[in-house]
Amino acid sequence: MSFLKLLQPPSLHLHLHFNHNYNHRSLYFHHQYHHSHRILTQPFFSKIHNFTSSSKRIVVSSILQTDDGVTSSNSDSCSAEHDNDDDVRIVAVVGEGAISPLKSASWLDVMIHTAERLKWVDEQYEMLVFTDNISNSNQNLQRELTTANILLVISVTDPEPVEWIQRYTQKIPNVVCFDSSPALENKLGGSSVNKKTKETAKTILESWVRYNSDDIRFCLLLIINSYIKPVPILKNLRAQGLSTLNCMVKNCGIQVLNCLLDPNCRKALQCLNECSPVDQVCNYQCIASYESPILEEFSLCVLQKHNCLDLDAKIPEKPFVPPMVKFRGEPLSHETAEDLFIGWLGKTEWSWRVVAGQNPAYDQFPCQYQLFYRGKAKGSFWYEPVFQVKTLDGKLVWRRRKYRVKRGKVVGTFQFSVLDNGVVSNENWTVVDVADDLSWGLFHYSGAARVAGQSYTGAVLVSPDGEYPNDGEMSGLLSALGRCCIKDWELFDVDNRSCSGPPLGLPEGSRLHTVVEVGDLK
């Protein structure tokens, strides 16, 4: 999948007025939500360190993987003094027992996982997670706060911890509070939220309320990038100004003019301009809603051919996800791995249907079908996802993409590439696990649309009918998710209820399985 953000030059900019009301002292809001998703049993992978009987601290940076399992390193290494002013030292305090909107996962578990995901960006980012069961005599926590440069407070409302936080966090330059007492003051860059920091605060709030692990991590990365040190993966948030405009006029004048004169293409630009540059859901929905040959020509020229925005996103290297090594008791081969992608195609009109996925920008789309097949040419392999899009004017339309697939060096890994609305995306896919009876499978991917400045990771849980595997398969599924460093509460369920008339079918001369025998669908 690819995600496109067109930053309009000054002469094309649409002047938007926001009437966004929030308390500058606290990004304080309450939410109501219900849970219609199937909830999986979540294993607890983290070790909790108790300083006192009344204070709980989780130090993700001190957890090491050994041959014997998970053990804790010397706690002194986690609380050592830091001499470098641009070290990233984050403390998170969450309400004890507080439940998040992420499939009822506790905020404690969500923030522990966020600390782990921060290290995918930079191993030096340290985040310590505490509950609000705090004692005034807790010298260890006080010491951590004296060296912290970011404090994140979530669902803390009881007077005692609120007063404690107010007393011991006055010197922390960046404090952001969610669902907490309005008595807690937010700070960015060393001062209360003001005219200078209002836009950053607004972006943080908008990202947080999307309630997914990517955006929660982004909130912290944005604070780091804005007030502590540059974050390389966020460099693509900055436009190039006149250099972008000059590039567009010099190289793509006809394509720009055609787009501005076409109502549909112009709507696409207006829609994209209203999206936050980090809201991949909004950006991709704009593209899918208004895609057209004129928009594709515009993007192909401005972005893909001339890179007028001067962007350069890389495919994420972390997390490292190993492929499955055996299927039905036999070592996995390239041919078998391809057959597992092909799945049920031949017995049904599709290879797989997507049950759920980890990437919010893609897995919001209903009725996702996967078509994998061998091409007519020797050695060719293709992937065509078919999915519905609810356009911004309320219509349901079908979309279909076509990826070229090549084998990776390691059996069970593949390289995908696609031209999506004028922008090339490259992705690395891994066959993580597939049940022997093909009742379910899990595929992981990491990718980048280089010239659009977007990189991403995700995974898709698939089955022949779009339903979750039965309870007897859940332990295997949880194990596979763990190898992807994904928690079950990160998955977004795909709406597979109203899926009549998908544009399926294969090109003439397509070939299917060569090794794997596929039984009848039960």
Characterization of the model:
This protein has helices at 107-121, 139-147, 159-168, 198-208, 213-227, 242-261, 263-274, 280-290, 293-305, 334-342, 360-363, 474-483; strands spanning 49-52, 55-59, 63-66, 69-72, 89-94, 126-131, 150-154, 175-178, 187-188, 191-192, 326-327, 330-331, 352-357, 369-374, 381-390, 396-400, 403-407, 413-420, 423-434, 441-449, 454-463, 492-493. Helix 4 (198-208) runs antiparallel to helix 5. By secondary structure, it is α+β, with helices and mostly antiparallel strands. It contains twelve helices and 22 strands.
Provide the fold topology:
Blueprint: E1 49-52, E2 55-59, E3 63-66, E4 69-72, E5 89-94, H1 107-121, E6 126-131, H2 139-147, E7 150-154, H3 159-168, E8 175-178, E9 187-188, E10 191-192, H4 198-208, H5 213-227, H6 242-261, H7 263-274, H8 280-290, H9 293-305, E11 326-327, E12 330-331, H10 334-342, E13 352-357, H11 360-363, E14 369-374, E15 381-390, E16 396-400, E17 403-407, E18 413-420, E19 423-434, E20 441-449, E21 454-463, H12 474-483, E22 492-493
Parallel strand pairs: 5-6, 5-7, 7-8
Antiparallel strand pairs: 1-2, 2-6, 3-4, 9-10, 11-12, 13-14, 13-21, 13-22, 14-15, 15-16, 15-17, 17-18, 18-19, 19-20, 20-21
